[in-house]
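Re: the request from the purification team.
They wanted to know what the chain is likely to look like in 3D before they choose a buffer screen. I agreed to run a prediction and write the result into the notebook, where they can find it.
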Amino acid sequence: MKKPPGVLLAVDPGKSTGWAVYVDGLVKNLGICRTPEEFDIWLDSFVETYGKPDVVVIEKFVLFRHKAKQQIGSQFEVSQVIGVAKSFGRKTEAEVVMQGSDILPTAVMWSKMKIPTDHNVSHHIVAANHAVYYLVSNDMMLPLGM
């Protein structure tokens, strides 16, 4: 097994942004910021609270043709949060990793953290699953139950 990052931040971006902080491969804290501005403000105290991140894992956003109509009138909060998270990663000299949402079924099997069907309360669990996927994929953690 490889040594996990000292501090890993995983982000599920959106109007409501889920985040998960892992320290030395173990979950330290999870949460949801309800606006892009709240997430930006939360990041302002991140280094003071958790230390400088080594890795920032962010869920990718792709606008699919069949979902384009749903975005009419959108302020693209997902894109705003991704930009803020990428900028934070660069400023703190962290490795920034983008992961698609297609990894989530595998991540859930590995983490044993089922994503709630109520989307309003699922974002932090999605972020945690992105963290686990990154850690297991990079031989820094074994899947739970294995």
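For the purification team: The helical segments are 36-44, 46-50, 77-91, 104-111, 123-137.
Please add any questions underneath this entry.
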